[in-house]
Write a structure and sequence with these properties.
Length: about 140
């Protein structure tokens, strides 16, 4: 499986910022950190321009905590590479619905929603990661 691409802004500004920011901060130490990334149409559902807006207040290791939050953000709002987007054929949709029902969900959409995987499903495609995860969770399932 191909790796999910790192957003250009993370590789472009995050690592250099960590290298040039001295430990300790000012006389009070370092207790907060924030990251705001703005890009036209990059917000949730394309409705605004805020790609990322994270902040950590009053934390012993705010930069490390901000990195952790950024990782969670990237899991919830992924950039799915085109080669990792499986076309939603009727056969695949039937399989995914059946597997989701085997786990106690009404259908595949309900399973996706229960795990906050909406970012891994697009118009006419589903991310390979999600298909693989559902298949792993239902190894005994069969279409019969």
């Amino acid at each position: 499986m191909a790796a999910t691409p790192t957003p250009r802004w993370r590789g472009g500004c995050w690592r250099p910022w960590r290298r040039v920011t001295p430990p300790g901060g000012d006389s009070r130490g370092r207790q907060s950190a924030a990251l705001l990334v703005v890009k036209e149409g990059a917000g949730y559902g394309g409705f605004d321009d805020v790609a990322v807006d994270l902040r950590v207040d009053d934390h012993a290791e705010p930069v490390r905590e901000l990195e952790r939050l950024l990782g969670l953000h990237e899991e919830l709002f992924p950039v799915v590479a085109e080669e990792d987007q499986l076309p939603d054929s009727p056969e695949l949709q039937a399989e995914l619905d059946g597997r989701a029902r085997a786990l106690g969900h009404d259908d595949f959409g309900a399973w996706v929603g229960s795990l906050n995987y909406e970012g891994y499903v697009g118009e006419g495609w589903t991310a390979r990661k999600v298909v693989d995860e559902l298949r792993s969770a239902t190894p005994e399932w069969s279409a019969s």
